[in-house]
Amino acid sequence: FSGYDCDSDPCQNGGICRISDGGGYRCDCPKGTDGTNCELDSFNECDSNPCKHADATCQDKLGDYACYCPPKHTGKSCEVYDRNSPGGLGKPVLSHKETSIYYAKDFEMLREQCAKNNCQAKRGNFKCDEECNTYACDFDGNDCSLGINPWANCTAPIRCWEVFMDGNCNEECYNPQCLFDGRDCEKTLQLCNPIYDAYCQKHYANGHCDYGCNNAEC
Ligand SMILES: [Ca+2]
Ligand SMILES: [Ca+2]
Ligand SMILES: [Ca+2]
């Protein structure tokens, strides 16, 4: 007998497949799930009232719970007060370090996508290639964003373009919409990143001051 039964990956929801002595397989199911393939919800995670706000709504999920928070509250259990939060599904709030790691990974992934989509060859050809129109791909060499404010979707309370890549970490701007504060938060300032170099060249003397380019490195 060879482990074929597990080859089809029968265990769902993170269950671990093991070959049974008598043939066949069995799934070691994560807490809160049950059934032959861990497909059943065996536990109501809302029973312990995990949502920390009286007006929150708890939803039982497979091996988990979700909290729907009233406005101004967020976090997995609505435990975080955030006056900018519209409410709704509470999402875990990461520490700054965790956020950093998360975005750095995200950025690496996006960079790989750029390479896969051959964005280097498509940039700056005056045709908008949507698959390259990301921060990590230098917005397709700005083919898609000419005349558009790259910070248009940035809702930070401060003017992120004024502190973009200024060497100081402005956490309010450290998100994709605000172009990650020019990665100020990730490491100490290095030589002008080729991405910004390209961005700055493209925007050089284009009629408005690009604060991100207004520094010694660029
Ligand atoms: Ca459940
Ligand atoms: Ca292009
Ligand atoms: Ca900054």
TrEMBL record:
Domain EGF-like stretches: 2-39, 42-79
Highest rank taxon of the organism: Eukaryota
Membrane topology, record value: Single-pass type I membrane protein
Localization per record: Cell membrane; Nucleus
Cited InterPro entries: EGF (IPR000742), EGF-like_Ca-bd_dom (IPR001881), EGF-type_Asp/Asn_hydroxyl_site (IPR000152), Notch-like_dom_sf (IPR035993), Notch/Slit_guidance (IPR051355), Notch_dom (IPR000800)
Domain LNR: 114-153, 154-195
GO molecular function: calcium ion binding
Disulfide bonds: C29-C38, C69-C78
GO biological process terms held by the UniProt record: axon guidance; cell fate specification; larval development; Notch signaling pathway; system process
Protein keywords: Activator, ANK repeat, Cell membrane, Developmental protein, Differentiation, Disulfide bond, EGF-like domain, Glycoprotein, Membrane, Notch signaling pathway, Nucleus, Repeat, Signal, Transcription, Transcription regulation, Transmembrane, Transmembrane helix
CDD domains: EGF_CA (cd00054)
Gene3D superfamilies: 3.30.300.320, Laminin
GO cellular component: cell surface; plasma membrane; receptor complex; RNA polymerase II transcription regulator complex
Name of the protein: Notch
